[in-house]
Specification:
Elements lengths: L5 E6 L4 E3 L2 H8 L6 E5 L2 H9 L17 H6 L7 E9 L2 E9 L5 E11 L1 H18 L7 E3 L2 H9 L13 H16 L6 E3 L2 H4 L11
Parallel strand pairs: 4-7, 7-8
Antiparallel strand pairs: 1-2, 1-3, 4-5, 5-6
Helix pairs in contact: 4-5, 4-6
Length: about 210
């Protein structure tokens, strides 16, 4: 089994060393100019945390990836859809995409769109993925997301964002409105599964831009 990664948050809601991306992500989502980076071991992460972000910014750290065989042994459904979002700033330029988990083939990609947030992108990615699977007549194909917030918003049928309308992000709010209407008029039959980043590595749809 490949080793997990550790995440240092220098500037976030609660700075520290985190043993999972999900835990670290909670400290940076919505936090202006958050500073964080992943490391291959706890020792490296703790040493980095004692230093400054700028000593590590832009430098490569060891990354660990798992083979398809390893993922399958860990219980990952490879014949599935994986979705993820990225945002440069919060708010900032937001985009999202969906890929086939086994092959990594990109199925759809939207953005970048101005003045969005990562959480909104994760929500829209899930709805887009669910709608796409319905169009493909694949009512039982699982869909993976690493965002717990997005999954809760899907369950509620509502994008519970605090994002302010700026005029520049009208397109995003139009997409949110369409997504909520789709959720209100369509029964979800596809399993929505949480991607276990700590154990499996980054989700296949990841944009690869984490510090």
């Amino acid at each position: 089994m490949a080793k997990q990664k550790f995440y240092v948050v220098w500037d976030g809601y609660e700075p520290g060393v985190y043993s999972s991306w999900n835990a670290a992500k909670q400290q940076i989502d919505g936090y202006p100019n958050a500073k964080y980076k992943s490391f291959a071991s706890r020792d490296e992460a703790e040493k980095a945390f004692r230093g400054t972000y700028w000593a590590y910014a832009g430098k490569q750290t060891k990354s660990v990836s798992k083979s398809l065989e390893e993922l399958e042994q860990l219980g990952v459904y490879l014949d599935s859809l994986a979705v993820d979002a990225a945002c440069s700033g919060n708010p900032g330029d937001m985009e999202y995409r969906g890929v086939h988990t086994r092959t990594g083939q990109e199925i759809f990609r939207v953005g970048p769109l101005p003045d969005g947030t990562n959480n909104v992108g994760e929500f829209l990615a899930l709805v887009h993925g669910l709608a796409w699977l319905k169009q493909q007549n694949s009512p039982r194909t699982p869909i993976y997301s690493d965002s717990r917030n997005a999954q809760l918003w899907i369950k509620a049928g509502k994008c519970r964002t605090k994002l302010a309308e700026t005029g520049r992000n009208d397109k995003i709010f139009e997409m949110i409105d369409r997504a909520e209407k789709w959720l209100a008029t369509n029964k979800i039959t596809n399993p929505i599964l949480k991607w276990n980043t700590a154990e499996w590595g980054e989700i296949p749809a990841d944009f690869g831009r984490k510090k």
